[in-house]
Amino acid sequence: MRNLSVLLSVAAMGAWLAASPALADYKVGFITSLSGPAATIGVPYAKGIAAAKQYMPAIGGDAVTVIQLDDGSDPAAATRDARKLVEEDKVDILIGTGTSTSSMAMASVANELKVPYIAISPIKGGPADDGNLWALGVTQPPPLMVKAVAARIVRDGVKRLAYIGYSEAWGDYVYNGAKAAEKPDGLQVVTNERYARTDTSVTAQILKIMAAQPEGVIDGGSGTQGALPLLTLAERGYKGKIYGTPALVNGDFIRVGGKAAEGILCSGGPVIVADQLPDDHYAKKIALAFRDAYQKANGAPSTDSFSPYAFDAWLLFADAAPRAKAKAAPGTPEFHAALREALFSVKDLAGTQGFYNFTPASAYGVDERALVLMRLVGGKWIYEP
Question: For the chain, which domains are there?
Fold first, then answer.
């Protein structure tokens, strides 16, 4: 009778294990903006995660469960979603979201609840200076994004540069980057015009820019709404140079901007012009693999610079997770701590948007190699070495 009880217990345990997810499975909490004004960015992020799952559905043989939530482009909702994913769904890592403001809100939650977080929109600073001990960013640092194009602005001989961008964190990042390029005997930023993501007109701001008679304009918007200043500049007959950042490298921007966006010079990740890169470029192989996975997962080619950030976030997690698992089981506080340590020690990882090297002193892991210059010609981005 005792042996029968043991056999029944073993059989019951076997059935329970068969019906339960593997203890080594990983859980990813993914937040993006599928609705609201940031959806033009958030939807590509979701497609990037789909491409990542297509490319690498398991990590070291262990399944990965993704729980995706829509924050509606609202920082308060991003905060609530992040808290729910950690406290109720018990995720091992957070990835998101569609705006810098919401991403910084998520970083605060991650730091408080001690769960690693990979931001796919720019976040301020790093763990050394503002307490985001559990957050790191997969994007190029905003100053670097602007520095790359600012150097070209100076080389183009522009002395008077006008600025127009969002009245929020991303707008501040681009404006501050442009100001950093000023020179006593050269480039000067002569305007600081702002607008909200929900605005439908920037006529008043563009009139001020036209009055300043700039030789160039840098657009600090993103996605669809980033086209609004350019459309208005074209309406007012502006004929000078126009510049932008990776935030404008988006199919919707091209569609909405049309002829007004033609000729804009932007900095951007190498993935956008992967087929135009030299064969020995570090990003070419993985960028082309991303394009293939994106096509299979989404049934259409990749045309934006946002989805690759989500893809690279997955690559970072996949690189760090096995090293963390060697120290602790997923789903535990010990694993979260080990994963954080592993993420902040990623070395020489080639991604679609950069060559990643992280340290505990910096939340950003890329250098100048993460950016190329590209010009919009005939509705397509052309690599400018």
Answer: 11-140+289-370 (3.40.50.2300), 142-268 (3.40.50.2300)
| CA gap 251, 300 in Å, rounded | 12
Helix (H, G, I), strand (E, B) or coil at 383: strand
How do beta strands 349-350 and 265-268 pair?
Answer: unpaired
- The type of residue at 8 is L
The pLDDT tens digits for 172-216 are 999 999 999 998 878 999 999 999 999 999 999 999 999 999 999
pLDDT tens per residue across span 347-362: 999 999 999 999 988 8
Alpha helices for the chain (secondary structure H): 2-19, 39-55, 75-87, 100-113, 127-130, 142-155, 169-180, 203-212, 227-235, 251-257, 284-298, 307-325, 333-343
Q: Which residues contact 181 (CB under 8 A, 6 or more apart)?
A: 146, 147, 150, 151, 153, 154, 187
CA distance 119 to 312: 11
Tokens matching residue 4: 């029968």
Range 51-73 average pLDDT: 97
Are 222 and 244 a contacting pair, CB within 8 Å?
A: no
How much is the pLDDT for 131?
52
Q: What is the pTM of this model?
A: 0.83
Torsion from C-alpha of 335, 367, 153, 283, nearest 10 degrees: -90
- Considering the chain, what percentage of its residues have pLDDT values greater than 90? 83
